[in-house]
UniProtKB/TrEMBL annotation:
Ranges for region Disordered: 146-165, 175-194
Name this protein carries in UniProt: Suppressor of fused C-terminal domain-containing protein
Biased composition range(s): Basic and acidic residues: 146-156
Pfam families reported in the protein's UniProt record: SUFU, SUFU_C
Every Suppressor of fused C-terminal domain range: 113-316
GO terms under cellular component: cytoplasm; nucleus
InterPro entries named in the record: SUFU-like_domain (IPR020941), SUFU_C (IPR024314), SUFU_C_sf (IPR038489), SUFU_N (IPR037181), Suppressor_of_fused (IPR007768), Suppressor_of_fused_euk (IPR016591)
Organism superkingdom: Eukaryota
Domain Suppressor of fused-like: 1-100
Length: 321
């Protein structure tokens, strides 16, 4: 819990009910399968009002790798509801038993079908992840990388970093899945200009790019099928935020409003935040092409996927960059 608290303070990312944390080691440093976490509202401790505002209590629920992947694919709330139906997995109170040796998929034969059905009907509630990623402007006529935005804190000023952080958090936690907040003004249904544009992002340099090359490590790359099938194909957006710097990559469906991208300018950078428009035909192609990433153990890395006609390429590299 101390390490988790340190992450929250250093990153500024709040943990809310339904969020997941991939930890990759037993929570009690044993040989347990319980190596990851889901967050849920504490069922016993209610919200408290203080002179400094309201305080909500969040409970940590230990889960195994299969359950983490399911939460990423569909949503944390759905997995928590399934756990509550299985006393051996935690039951109604979501009690973590570090000695638990069976996942919900071993305890409930129909679990896979339930999750796949929910994923196809509802898509994924996961709108973004912290990841190892970078992007580069690329001239596809010459196959030349013009400039790469690496995970480097020196790439932007401290002021720009704060602006990027605010804009990214606004987009990630926007209540509207079909709107990307924190980018620019947009027109409401009555045609009037909406004034909710973030002032903090107005001064960031905006650049339209001819072509781009995206780079993800294997853990992030394995989420590309989810980003496309569970988000973009459902008319939503998905963001990869660098864990090492201020770089961010947002994949945007054509129906998402409030973005910087459009059909004529599908790649637009605002500071080190890149927005990538994924039209319907490309999303369909990617959904098929990225299927191989659902079994990352069979991949030969680095693996590059390229769409020259779209002036887009994506490379997945080993986790150890």
């Amino acid at each position: 819990m101390q390490s988790l608290a340190k992450y929250v303070f250093q990153s500024g990312n709040n943990l809310c009910s339904g969020d997941h944390v991939s930890w990759h080691c037993a929570l009690d440093n044993s040989e347990s399968r319980i190596q990851h976490m889901l967050m849920t509202t504490d069922l016993q401790l209610k919200s408290a009002q203080t002179p400094f505002g309201s305080v909500d209590f969040v409970q940590i629920v230990g889960i195994c790798a299969d359950e983490l992947r399911a939460a990423q694919q569909w949503n944390g709330a759905g997995i928590l509801e399934m756990i509550s139906r299985l006393p051996q997995a935690g039951g109604l109170w979501h009690i973590t038993d570090m000695r638990r040796g069976e996942s919900i998929f071993e305890l409930e034969p129909n679990a896979h079908e339930e999750i796949e059905r929910g994923f196809e009907l509802e898509g994924s509630n996961l709108s973004g992840v912290s990841a190892r990623c970078s992007w580069a402007e690329q001239d596809f006529s010459k196959s030349i990388v013009i400039k790469e935005k690496r995970d480097d804190r020196n790439s932007t000023s401290e002021e720009e970093n704060e602006q990027m952080k605010t804009a990214y958090q606004k987009s990630l936690y926007s209540n509207n899945n079909d709107r990307l907040a924190g980018t620019s003004g947009y027109k409401s249904d009555d045609g009037k200009e909406n004034s909710t544009m973030l002032e903090s992002t107005e001064l960031l340099h905006v650049k339209k790019l001819e072509g781009v090359h995206l780079i993800f490590n294997l853990e992030a790359g394995s989420l590309l099928p989810l980003a496309i099938r569970g988000r973009v194909k459902h008319g939503r957006h998905f963001t990869f935020k660098s864990i090492l710097g201020e770089t961010a990559i947002t994949l945007v469906a054509s129906s998402v409003t409030g973005t910087l991208v459009d059909v004529d300018n599908p790649y637009v950078a605002q500071g080190s935040w890149l927005q990538v428009l994924i039209p319907d035909d490309l999303a369909q192609d990617m959904a098929v092409t990225f299927h191989i990433l659902t079994t990352p153990e069979v991949l030969s890395l680095p693996k590059t996927f390229s769409w020259p006609e779209k002036r887009l390429s994506i490379t997945v590299v080993a986790d150890k960059l």
